[in-house]
């Protein structure tokens, strides 16, 4: 059994330590410190990969799809916000 520290685990998964804390990765608290078992991590990664689609070739070639008609861009209009202090393009009320 190989136990990894949080920083080693973050490097193994190639995520930040902050992201690691939010992931539902199996962990154990030993002596008040978090440790991650390498075998559990590898099993967790394999489980996450099961739901992924690895081959993303389109069924219909992109050249045979009809081209959509060009839609003219709408003119920009001011956006109203509920709070006038945050109104875009507006002024603070005096």
Automatic annotation (TrEMBL):
Helix-turn-helix domain span: 3-48
Segments for region (Disordered): 73-94
Pfam families given in the database record: HTH_17 (PF12728)
Signal sequence coordinates: none
Top-level division of the source organism's lineage: Bacteria
InterPro entries: DNA-bd_dom_put_sf (IPR009061), HTH_17 (IPR041657)
Name of this chain's protein: Helix-turn-helix domain-containing protein
Organism, scientific name: Nitrospira defluvii
